[in-house]
Design a protein that fits this description.
Layout: E1 9-11, E2 28-30, E3 43-44, H1 45-52, H2 59-68, E4 71-73, E5 76-77, E6 84-85, E7 90-93, E8 98-104, E9 110-115, E10 122-134, E11 137-142, E12 147-149, E13 161-165, E14 170-175, E15 182-185, E16 194-201, E17 210-215, E18 218-223, E19 227-229
Antiparallel strand pairs: 1-2, 3-6, 4-5, 4-7, 7-8, 8-9, 10-11, 10-13, 11-12, 13-14, 15-16, 15-19, 16-17, 17-18
Length: 236
């Protein structure tokens, strides 16, 4: 059969992303285009505008807003309402002057927190892969698809996080995934919780690394892929 290419529609009943949608209200929702998040970890800009922010009632209004209003995602303008947005992304509406940082709800869906004028404008990026490009050159890939060639003065490992300055469009401080660091839970039964990393137990070929986290006076264990090292001032 011939390849029909990307479809703009996705059946709600089989949707498995992080958009807040009512599965049985309508048959269809927005299909996610290629971008910085996978279908499992992201939500479309259109679903955020309509279903989370409630500033549009239908697709026609969403098209008008994305085409005629300036919407910035991590400092870059986005017109495609199928474009994916995800955890910790900064969404800015220039005309209204409002900025939002995306978090996760207890149901592992996208939620938004409006940023005040005193909040720092940055996005934490978690390193998911490292590649050696040549002599003394190492490139890291982040959870949102960004790539960065590490300066010689910076040593970072998979699991560490780096602050991305949205205003300056450059990477800044490294947050090491180590004992005592503040973390955000992005998977498992404790998703959306803030906590402090207490210990890391190394795994092997058959078992992932296990971490112990303290949150609200209680401790629990989870896999290291479920924790995201964050700065101290990142709050919901």
């Amino acid at each position: 059969m011939a390849n029909k290419g990307h479809s703009n529609r996705q059946k709600r009943i089989s949707y498995f992303g992080r958009a807040q949608i009512k599965r049985k209200e309508h048959a269809w929702t927005f299909n996610q285009s290629a971008g910085t998040h996978s279908k499992k970890s992201g939500a479309t800009l259109g679903s955020v505008v309509r279903d989370v922010l409630n500033i549009a009632n239908n697709t026609r209004e969403i098209k008008y807003i994305t085409q005629n209003k300036t919407i910035l995602l991590n400092g870059r303008r986005i017109k495609d309402y199928h474009f994916p947005v995800g955890l910790f992304d900064i969404l800015e509406f220039k005309e209204s002057g409002k900025k939002y940082r995306l978090f996760l709800s207890t149901h592992n869906k996208v939620s938004l927190k409006e940023l005040s004028k005193t909040d720092r404008d940055y996005r934490p990026c978690r390193i998911v892969k490292k590649n050696v490009l040549g002599k003394d050159k190492t490139q890291v890939t982040f959870d949102n698809g960004f790539n960065w060639v590490l300066p010689k003065t910076i040593h970072a490992q998979v699991g560490d996080s780096v602050e991305f300055d949205v205003a300056k469009q450059k990477f800044d401080e490294v947050i090491k995934l180590k004992d005592g660091v503040r973390v955000y839970i992005i998977g498992g039964p404790h998703v959306s919780k803030f906590g402090v990393l207490k210990s890391i137990v190394k795994g092997d070929l058959t078992k992932s690394n296990e971490v112990t986290v303290e949150s609200l006076g209680k401790t629990f264990k989870t896999m290291d892929k479920n924790v995201f090292a964050i700065p101290e001032d990142l709050k919901l």
